[in-house]
Write a structure and sequence with these properties.
Layout (H helix, E strand, L loop, with lengths): L6 H14 L2 H7 L5 E6 L4 H11 L4 E4 H12 L1 H10 L5 H4 L8 H14 L4 E4 L11 H5 L2 H4 L5 E9 L5 E3 L3 E2 L5 E3 L1
Parallel strand pairs: 1-4, 1-7, 2-3, 3-4
Antiparallel strand pairs: 4-5, 5-6
């Protein structure tokens, strides 16, 4: 169970995987995916983010919360909130269209691609901002861009393991860990 380890053990596990597993072995362990889902208690996010930024200072960090604000600003706040009300029951239509060009999901994928083009280890942080967008971690992990990265995608993931043994994003929403190695 990933949450039974302390922060130092988890970061040691991450360091070991990055140093000792090649792309094929990660994909085998991650059911064909090329991601590492770094699970931590939501209440401890600040400590985990400080640690990963310190230990991987050369990585390309993608702050999902900042991207969400940029997405809203780019669309104009008034326009965004008007459209958001219209799609409140189907947020994925606003944040993740089938074309994924000018939507929020597309912005995330463009940033991941930009990091890969710089040969940087890519780390998604503040992923709690995905809640309510209809974008699931599996959507990101299954994308063609992530599948073809040079280095694995690390997703900092605030979640708990429920009594049923299932991963719960932000202690609430069932989450998929199928396309990732879970730490």
């Amino acid at each position: 169970m990933p949450l039974s380890k302390n922060i130092n053990e988890k970061f040691n596990d991450l360091k070991f995987i990055l140093a000792n597993q090649d792309k094929q072995s990660i994909k085998m362990s991650a059911h064909g995916g090329y991601s590492i889902l770094f699970v931590y208690p939501p209440k401890e996010e600040k400590e985990y983010l400080q640690t990963i930024k310190r230990q991987y200072s050369d990585a390309y960090f993608i702050n999902i919360a900042e991207l969400l604000v940029k997405f809203i600003d780019d669309n104009g706040p008034e326009e965004f909130f008007s459209i958001y009300k219209e799609y409140a029951s189907e947020p994925e239509k606003l944040f993740k269209s089938e074309y994924a060009e000018g939507d929020f999901f597309g912005m995330i994928l463009k940033e991941i691609k930009r990091a890969d083009e710089q040969s940087k280890l890519t780390i998604l942080i503040r992923t709690g901002a995905l809640y309510g967008t209809g974008i699931e971690n599996l959507n990101i992990m299954d994308s063609v861009i992530v599948q073809h990265l040079h280095l694995p995608l690390i997703i900092m993931y605030p979640a708990t393991i429920g009594a049923d043994g299932k991963l719960k994003f932000l202690n609430h929403k069932l989450a998929s860990d199928y396309r990732a190695i879970v730490i």
